[in-house]
Amino acid sequence: MKNILLLIFCGILLMSCQITEKVYFSEDGSVKVERQIDVSEMMSQIISEKEIDSLRNKEHFPLDTIIPASELSNIRKEDFDENRPGYEKLMKALDNAQLHIVLSENEFKITSIISGENTDDFNQKSQGIVNALEEYEKNKGEDESTGIYSSVGLDYLQLEYDGKNFKRIGNVPLDEENDEESEIKELKGVSEFMNYKMEYHFPKPIKETSAENATFSKDGKTMYVDVNVQELFKTPEKYNFSVELE
Known about the structure:
This protein has 9 helices and 12 strands. It is an alpha+beta fold.
């Protein structure tokens, strides 16, 4: 299983993809946040027919599994050192997130999932991952990277919701040690291979929103926003919107 997942994650970082941010609110105020990476259209460039046949013979294909996000430390061991300060804290924080992996003949998706009893609970878990990553990376070498976590969207999103009013507060942090202009250029280069959408699902119809160019489901409870990825990297505050429910 670990070899399969390693193949998946190594391949997905090199491919163009569709990313969908999905947020679901229940009547009781609980929330589930998903970030789905869909590379279904690029499957043939990630996994060959021969590799698929090999997986099928081992009864590892098709694949539909959910794992703790901390399991990535066992899959991409080159990125992690269990003896480094902050490792245990990082693993504990990542236990608050899951990864749902779907691989079949015509579908290839990885979805990160963080659930909370309310937005405060979600924010605490999400920020806990951010803080643990920052602490862990303080002592990393120049050639080491844990970017796999950011690539599946496990951080940098905060939410506010009281049952009637909602706010999205997102951020795309830049490395303070790097030149901001050059880093933005690098992010723009990466963004050319991404499409990004948002879906926000509420238990009540939406009365109004500050989100630009939003569309809505027939029942008015779900909002869709197409995101310009280069704008998201350069001015993430543009996609910090509010929603008022009826």
